[in-house]
Write a structure and sequence with these properties.
Blueprint: E1 18-28, E2 31-41, E3 48-58, E4 69-74, E5 82-91
Parallel strand pairs: 3-5
Antiparallel strand pairs: 1-2, 1-4, 2-3, 4-5
Amino acid sequence: MAENKETSNTTARGRRKTLIGEVVSTKMAKTIVVEVRRQKAHPFYKRVVARSKKFYAHDENGTAHLGDFVKIEETRPLSKLKRWELKEIVRRAAQVAPIVEQPVI
């Protein structure tokens, strides 16, 4: 009895992790720093404690700006610290015009 099994060249990889965080730095070329904040109950005191971690993400076109909330996705290592890439911009930061001070007379 020979069973007919379909074989394909594509292997089913596990789902890639996605995170949402705020862009805190865009000073590097094609790289953004995203700070992901989460809240967790303390194991003993049961109080809610805020935790944050920074991730380096690849931004090919430089579309993300400081203060934007972005979704990043896990990917292969791109450099020593970069293991994430920009998936989409969830919310743009509010653009505020600079304040021009008038001289006091």
